[in-house]
User: Fold these one by one.
Assistant:
Number 1:
Amino acid sequence: MFESLSSRLGNTLRALSGSGRLTEDDVKNASRELRMALLEADVALPVVRDFVERVRARAVGAEVTQSLTPGQAFLRIVQQELVTTLGGETQGLNLRAQPPLVILMAGLQGSGKTTTSGKLALRLKDVDKKKVMLVSCDVYRPAAIEQLRIVAEKIGVECFPSAVGQNPVDIARAALDHARRAYAEVLIVDTAGRTSVDEAMMQEIAALHAAIEPAETLFVVDSMTGQDAANTAKAFADRLPLSGVVLTKVDGDARGGAALSVRTVTGAPIKFLGVGEKSSALEVFHPDRIASRILG
Ligand code: GDP
């Protein structure tokens, strides 16, 4: 079981008086607990180091008002810094671009790209009232193409046909042409992932990006992959101008540390959370909620 940061701090800082300022020593002890809590929440080590240092710098000398204990004062600073680092405000999709607006889905195999493509299509159709089209450029796995076709059928959205052996860029261009002619407002392009970062995959998705100039390039990442999420995110962010992140499988028991790592490493806002396997299981990202989860 995870111990929450507040109970950890309760033990460390209990002995201190209830007013005055946080001293260097208070903050040193509390920072140690913060570091442990973040590592247990699966935040990547370099991200933990940076984050703890920022909190430490803010906390030393900070005033402890009468209504707060030193632990609460420290925790409040941590919470504020987490929300700021996670992006502060909630950010939706950029729907202002010229239609058909293209959304390119990027991420490793199994991260939840196809499922999330369906979820976004459903949301755009039902909430934003857009005419949406889907296309799969995964020319290596017939099952992936079929999976997207089935999802599209279920939610009542057109899926542009594609087949194994075709060129992904040709598929995407043809789908975009078709979307234009059919007056589709959004085209969601699902892509092939790999089990780990690999050069051929990166070249392919970079070529897709160049060919179809997406308004949104979303990096999809499994929140359960913890420490690895940061390395994967860096590899994708180095090759693609990511406009947003979708963190999936947040309904699992991970503490959500991947959110902090991925946001820090990519600089791109987390836009949605996947919270289940169903097409309706997509939530808009709220930094404060995941901040509370990370802190336990
Ligand atoms: P892809 O290879 O990146 O396209 O990944 P898929 O969309 O096929 O998803 C891989 C697996 O993760 C499937 O079994 C999905 O049902 C599951 N999955 C995707 N998103 C979520 C989520 O938010 N929560 C849960 N519990 N499962 C998810």
Number 2:
Amino acid sequence: DKGAYPFYMLKEIDEQPAVMRRLVQEYLGADGQPQIDTELLAQMKAADHLYIIGAGTSYHAGLIGARLFERLAHVPTTVHISSEFAYEQPLLSDNPFFIFLSQSGETADSREVLVHVNENHWPSLTITNVDKSTLSREATHTLLLYAGPEIAVASTKAYTAQVAVQAILAKALGEFVGNQAAQSFDIKDELAKVANGMQALVDSKEEIEAIAANALAKPRNAFYIGRGIDWAVSLEAALKLKEISYVQAEGFASGELKHGTIALIEKDTPVVGIITQDRTAGLTRSNLEETAARGANVLTIAARHLAKEDDAIILPDVDPMIAPLLSVVPAQLLAYYTSLGKGLDVDKPRNLAKSVTVQ
Ligand code: M6R
């Protein structure tokens, strides 16, 4: 039931702080340490490479997870679109471990890969919102997202839950293998900060609604740009905007703009920059200036410690590794309000189904 909400999507965006708190309860002990099955951790430790498989938003969540597994657990990790992996399998390492990300646990493209993984007796984990779903039943291990039912076609709380569960798992694996970076990452404290930060962002809806009305209501196309994990969030931000508001939106690595895409910038083309990483903030800002010089309507979503006066949306500070948990929220709201402003059916965009059970 969506109660007083006009659409499930807005309800689900608003539920994100509570989902973060639930994940702390479900997965972290009183000492703040992850409580993860040691058999799962032992199988992951025995692997020489993690392969993350997902589609759409779940693929985008995997892009964040890969960086977390590499940084916190020091294990090489690659992310693959399930429909690509199924038919163009890369050369695998000797001891692969597969992580399937799927809100529904029923995505046919991802299942196709899992069938192949099982034929080869490779160990696997499904991270899903639906207990006993197909991908959960058929994988070696399951971790649940505890996000509650996600009804809107556009995935929101499942994305942030997927990122958070991967952060918890990467922390657990990093501790299990004795990696220093994991030992100094206080996941409990960080997820508490994330929950509070998300609450502050969803409480500033009206500002984001105004930005959507000014910048995104009319243009036919828009760009999100960033570097590193900010680029990964740009891909998710663009997907949200295109699937529910029908604005042709693309996420770009900001350094790539000058290699072609900047030719598309015209007067008032919206370009949203995501800036949460110390090393790349200055570079992304200068890329944004290059688009502004060609007439772009530049908007910035910046972490507080990197913020400048003109930034449109300022994010509370958290560990930069998990900044996507916050930077995605304004992008979800921008997509929501753009769709709402156009009078579209936010929860049921044209041509799309919640769960894609065909290949
Ligand atoms: O249930 P899944 O996570 O496997 O679904 C994957 C995609 O179909 C899904 O994320 C889709 O891209 C959403 N509509 C995105 O908002």
